[in-house]
Amino acid sequence: MNDPEQKNQALARAGSAALKNEVKKESPEWAKERREEYLQGKIKRLSKEITEIYQEYERQTRDDVPHWFRLFALEYKKVEEKEKRLGRLNKELRNLGSGKEAEITEDMIEQARNYDITKLIEVKRNFALCPFHPDRRPSFFVKNNFGYCFACGASADSIGLLMNRDGLSFPEAIKALQ
Ligand SMILES: [Zn+2]
């Protein structure tokens, strides 16, 4: 398995499985209710945002100006992401109480994975000082929110960075990146 992305996903899956058992024991009585409340609020806000983007599109396209089509193309990516997230949140809400839910949800992992890695390390023109070895010149290449060191060979996404650089556990890293 040479693909760093695959390695990371495998790491995340392993961490996720181990974590489920670990945290379920500590789950307080109010946890489900609170998650439900959070999900409902989030779903409501997200639905509103999606509706607004579509409404904006309707309004702008009426003018039939190509410029707006370009703007919409940018917004459309956001809509797709938002709709995907909405799907995950709704799925989790449906599963709440069915025994399928875990403290760390797929949505939380997805959010953490998408956390802007440049907020965690200083990146200039796609390169940063490697967080995994004493690096004098920036060897850590960052692209698509993923870093790879051309010197030491280490790689990480935002989750892996917090785990391997800061020594956080998988659940700690996921929570820190929400
Ligand atoms: Zn390195």
Series of H and E elements: HHHHEEEEHH
CATH class of the largest domain: Alpha Beta
Q: How much helical structure, as a percent, in the residues? A: 55-70%
The number of domains: 2
Radius of gyration of CA atoms, rounded to a whole number: 20 Å
Low-confidence regions: none
Biggest sheet, spatial arrangement of strands:
1-2-3-4
Principal-axes shape call: flat
Bound molecules: zinc ion
Question: Major sheet, described briefly?
Answer: 4 strands, antiparallel
How many β-strands, per DSSP?
A: 4
Continuous helix count = 6
Strand content: 5-15%
What would the CATH topology of the largest domain be? DNA Primase, Chain A
Known CATH architecture of the largest domain: Alpha-Beta Complex
Overview of this protein structure:
- The chain is an alpha+beta fold.
- The protein folds into two domains: 1-25 and 115-178, Zinc finger, CHC2-typedomain (DNA Primase, Chain A, Alpha-Beta Complex); 28-102.
- Helix content is 60%, strand content 7%.
- It has helices at residues 4-24, 31-62, 66-95, 106-113, 158-166, 170-176; strands spanning 127-128, 140-143, 146-149, 155-156.
- Strands 1-2-3-4 form a four-stranded antiparallel beta sheet.
- The longest helix is centred in the N-terminal third of the chain and has 32 residues, at 31-62.
- The two termini are 29 Å apart.
- The structure holds zinc ion.
- Zinc ion (ZN) is lined by residues 130, 132-133, 135, 139, 149, 151-152, 154.
- Zinc ion is lined by residues 130, 132-133, 135, 139, 149, 151-152, 154.
